[in-house]
Amino acid sequence: MRSRHILLLRTLVMLSLLGLAGPGAVAKPWWMRGIDSNETDFLPPDVAFRVGARIDGSALRVRWVIADGYYLYRQKISVAAESPDLVVSGIALPPGAVKTDPYLGTQEIYTQQLEGTVAYRRLDYGAHPLQIKVTYQGCAEAGLCYPSISKVLSPTAPTAPAAQTTPRWERYAILGGASAFLLAGLVLRKGRNLPLPAA
Fold first, then answer.
1. Is residue 141 included in any domain, yes or no?
2. 28 or 42, which is more confident?
3. Could you please report the per-residue DSSP string of the chain?
4. CATH number of 135's domain
5. Which of 20-24, 36-40, 165-169 has the highest mean pLDDT?
6. Domain contains 83
7. Does the global pTM surpass 0.90?
């Protein structure tokens, strides 16, 4: 009985301490630590900078969709091979907009969206899944800079072309052949009497 009272007392003390701490006592996500701002002011990194990759012949296309009010640094973007026997070149990026950053100086940045091209070669002849590791860093215009982000991507293969339809002349030939076969069967049956089975 006494142990129940002690457990109940401890529970009440913990609840009262949490109540005194107020709503600000809730832990912030890792990307918000050290920021004296409301947690809802900034997007999570995976929402602020969405990235994907696809195969385009002998190149990979890596594409970022960047949320409004956010940007990526050109110098902080890189791509490396993640799967065995994969060789990739450096990523080719278009020119960015020039921004004077208070911490990093004059930088080229990208807003809205970005697509880079990476030449690749497979030495395993397709034995392993194709995977690359992309690394990038960006900031919010409102002042938050995210730590460097690394993601392993599996580029998607191009979609197969739609099934080829039968050419029109082939359809007419098939329809004509079937009609001729049916007509020949009717003509041959016309003069033929089949004996009925005895009851």
1. yes
2. 42
3. -HHHHHHHHHHHHHHHHHHHH-GGGSPPPGGGTT--S-GGGS--HHHHEEEEEEEETTEEEEEEEE-TTEEEEGGG-EEEE-STTEEE-PPB----EEEEETTTEEEEEE-SEEEEEEEEEESSTT-S---EEEEE-EEETTS-BPPPEEEEE-PBPPPPPPPPPPPHHHHHHHHHHHHHHHHHHHHHHHT--PPPPP-
4. 2.60.40.1250
5. 165-169
6. yes
7. no
